């Protein structure tokens, strides 16, 4: 099958959308399918993959990653209409997503859209005093979804959200998968703990994610501060892995906790991230409003870490309360802190949850998700032919 991925964001950025695209692309190609990626041009970046077509783009915000893409290939000799495609899969709703839809209609081939980002929830978060911005985001999302032949939702919550705003086209739930399952390394655990001056007996919580307002790390720090009031957690440590614009503010908040209680590790290379997971005992995550996927939750489970998150439909697919983690009440830092204390002090419970976490992570294997995607492609292709 000849597949076209269209996205307004791609490598060298390596966040959730880009990782999802790459993992699906590589697995599809390993099965003999041809995937061509249509993406913005980023100055100074050179693709190793020859099947990437870059489009002229300009930066529209201070963040260089946010670009306005034009429908003009960087290589002027490239004629998009001449590229043979059997199906087009958009990963964004903007310039290149619209181009993908246009080409799909011209070629009379299926047009699929994955709803990676909940734009109207972001609008509510960042423009709380403005009714118009969330309304526009919701209406545009609905409009775009209903011009696809099929929609991929990363979670059941996202499917329900799209149906709730009026998306009527077929929706299938396909999470981004795990490309590998690591092997536990006690040496890696000891190395990171030594580097961060953490004793072996100290309970360590870890959070992995971009340091920005939407990730709700301030809430996590508030809950950890409450948990630290329990003398049994006097040596407990919270490791925050990730970088972002909110780091300075979060470090100021963390300074109110006992010295050395919170360690900001910054951006950790992929090859080293496993070691940080192994240095921890519990994965804690307070974000839920704008989340659309469970990638980081699945990663934590695959490292045999019990997971502590908010009680939300998004996480109920992956976390069974009391079996592989806990679901804390929303907007209740004391409840979140209570589970932190429970997980830190009850080693037998933590061991049981750890074993169940590893087992439950198998459902996220990338090959299983690619199977679902191909089945959806074939279903839409057959419908197009009738």
From TrEMBL:
The Glycosyl transferase family domain, residue ranges: 190-357
Coiled-coil residue windows: none
Organism: Candidatus Wildermuthbacteria bacterium RIFCSPHIGHO2_02_FULL_45_25
A GO molecular function held by the record: glycosyltransferase activity
Name of the protein this chain belongs to: Glycosyltransferase subfamily 4-like N-terminal domain-containing protein
Boundaries of every Glycosyltransferase subfamily 4-like N-terminal domain copy: 16-177
Gene3D superfamilies: Glycogen Phosphorylase B
């Amino acid at each position: 099958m000849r597949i076209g991925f269209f996205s307004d964001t791609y490598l060298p950025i390596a966040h959730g959308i880009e990782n999802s695209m790459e993992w699906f692309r590589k697995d599809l190609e390993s099965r003999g399918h041809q995937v061509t990626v249509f993406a913005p041009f980023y100055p100074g970046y050179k693709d190793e993959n020859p099947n990437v077509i870059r489009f002229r783009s300009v930066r529209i915000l201070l963040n260089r990653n946010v670009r306005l893409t034009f429908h003009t290939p960087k290589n002027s000799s490239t004629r998009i209409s001449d590229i043979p495609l059997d199906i087009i899969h958009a990963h964004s709703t903007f310039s290149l997503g619209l181009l993908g839809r246009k080409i799909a209609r011209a070629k009379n081939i299926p047009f699929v859209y994955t709803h990676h980002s909940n734009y109207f929830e972001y609008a509510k978060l960042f423009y709380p005093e403005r009714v118009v911005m969330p309304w526009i985001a919701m209406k545009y999302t609905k409009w775009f979804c209903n011009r696809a032949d099929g929609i991929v939702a990363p979670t059941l919550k996202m499917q329900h959200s799209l149906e709730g705003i009026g998306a009527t086209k077929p929706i299938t739930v396909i999470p981004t998968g795990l490309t590998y399952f690591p092997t536990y390394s006690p040496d890696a655990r000891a190395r990171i703990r030594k580097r961060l001056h953490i004793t072996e007996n100290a309970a360590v919580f870890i959070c992995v994610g971009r340091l920005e307002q939407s990730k709700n790390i301030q809430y996590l720090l508030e809950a950890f501060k409450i948990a630290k009031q329990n003398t049994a957690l006097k040596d407990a440590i919270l490791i925050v892995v990730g970088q972002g614009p909110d780091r300075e503010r979060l470090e100021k908040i963390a300074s109110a906790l006992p010295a050395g209680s919170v360690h900001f590790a910054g951006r950790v290379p992929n090859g080293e991230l496993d070691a940080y997971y192994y240095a921890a005992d519990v994965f804690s995550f307070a974000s839920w409003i704008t989340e659309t996927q469970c990638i980081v939750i699945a990663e934590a489970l695959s490292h045999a870490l019990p997971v502590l998150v908010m009680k939300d439909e998004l996480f109920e697919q992956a976390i069974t309360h009391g079996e592989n983690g806990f679901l804390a009440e929303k907007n209740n830092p004391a409840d979140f802190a209570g589970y932190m204390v429970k997980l830190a002090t009850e080693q037998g419970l933590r061991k049981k949850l750890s074993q169940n976490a590893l087992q439950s992570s198998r459902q996220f294997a990338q090959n299983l998700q690619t199977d679902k995607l191909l089945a959806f492609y074939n279903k839409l292709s057959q419908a197009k032919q009738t």
